[in-house]
């Protein structure tokens, strides 16, 4: 009489096939991060900033569709820590999402390895610490999920992908901000806007006919919606938070807290020695905050000059609503 059970060899083969099916065509990406405090002066005022591997912003998490990502996080902060992956879909593994309620906090001196698959996902995202208002102290970084080989992107291949993390910034410690909220007080106005951790940021383009750069822009701030624009350069929107869009040109884009956009910017053939401003300004506030950057070309000899790119009125809600409606 034959046994009703499969032979052990068949079970092992079936298990291997199952694993192959789950991760078919996928790669593995591993990161080892140490999260700690470091004195930095993004706006000229020294402050304890949350850094990852001594970097602010933190290192790029660069992966491909269907990759299995493992991130070992060592907490060298004096308080509990969780890292969340803003916009990334945690399919059947919500316990890797890095928020209170699905994850136990990583205690000081301890570590935890996040592991998740970027199943059928592409796009531009970012990560940040989700506990105790630590995001106001830094600890954030960019996430890129690239198309698999053989899956074309729906626009010409850019010369370079550039991550731009923009957001409001406070010179006071995040623990002091947290104490204000615990006491029922409102947060004060931010002290400024950072672009990739700097109050003034320099970007370098190469000239060329048809040469484009893909800017992956995320608002990593606490409370302030922002408007992004580049002097004398149009923004061609091509992707937002994991979905390719119908291509559309904008002179400026409103980017609200937590949002990420990909735009293509065409390099100029001739600059006549000029460089160009990048403006990131606050929206829907009684005061105006301004983050400043400069696009340089190899022949840029002069500082930016000429007309400043127009921005929507501070409380022009219709501009932002119409922008959202125009994205398909």
From TrEMBL:
Residues 1-24 form the signal peptide. Keywords: Signal. Residues 40-149, 164-288 form the Plastocyanin-like domain. GO terms for molecular function: copper ion binding; oxidoreductase activity. It holds the Pfam family Cu-oxidase_3. InterPro entries: Cu-oxidase-like_N, Cu-oxidase_2nd, Cu-oxidase_fam, Cupredoxin, CuRO_1_AAO-like. The keyword Signal applies. Belongs to the multicopper oxidase family. PANTHER family: MULTI-COPPER OXIDASE (PTHR11709), MULTI-COPPER OXIDASE TYPE I FAMILY PROTEIN (PTHR11709:SF296). This is Uncharacterized protein. It comes from Linum tenue.
């Amino acid at each position: 009489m034959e046994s009703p059970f499969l032979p052990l060899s068949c079970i092992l083969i079936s298990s291997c096939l199952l694993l192959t099916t789950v991760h078919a065509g996928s790669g593995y990406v591993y990161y080892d991060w140490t999260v700690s405090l470091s004195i930095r002066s993004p706006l000229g005022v020294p402050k304890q900033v949350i850094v990852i591997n001594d970097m602010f912003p933190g290192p790029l998490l660069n992966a491909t569709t269907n990759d299995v990502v493992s991130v070992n996080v060592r907490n060298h902060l004096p308080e509990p820590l969780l890292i969340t992956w803003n916009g990334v879909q945690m399919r059947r593994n919500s316990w890797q999402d890095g928020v209170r309620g699905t994850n136990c906090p990583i205690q000081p001196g301890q570590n935890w390895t996040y592991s998740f698959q970027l199943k059928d996902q592409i796009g531009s995202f970012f990560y940040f610490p989700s506990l105790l208002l630590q995001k106001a102290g830094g600890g954030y970084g960019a996430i890129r999920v690239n198309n698999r080989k053989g899956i074309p992107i729906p626009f010409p291949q850019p010369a370079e992908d550039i991550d731009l993390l923009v957001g409001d910034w406070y010179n006071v410690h995040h623990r002091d901000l947290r104490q204000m909220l615990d006491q029922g007080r409102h947060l004060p106005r931010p002290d400024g806007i950072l672009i990739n951790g700097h109050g003034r940021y320099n970007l370098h383009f190469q000239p060329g006919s048809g040469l484009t750069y893909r800017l992956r822009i995320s608002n990593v701030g606490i409370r302030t919606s922002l408007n992004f624009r580049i002097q004398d350069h149009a923004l061609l929107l091509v992707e937002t938070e994991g979905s390719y869009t119908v291509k559309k040109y904008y002179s400026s884009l409103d980017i609200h807290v937590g949002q990420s956009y990909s735009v293509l910017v065409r390099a100029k053939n001739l600059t006549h020695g000029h460089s160009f401003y990048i403006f990131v300004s606050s929206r829907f506030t009684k005061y105006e905050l301004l983050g400043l950057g400069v696009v340089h070309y190899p022949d840029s000899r002069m500082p930016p000059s000429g007309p400043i790119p127009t921005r929507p009125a501070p409380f022009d809600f219709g501009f932002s609503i119409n922008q959202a409606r125009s994205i398909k």
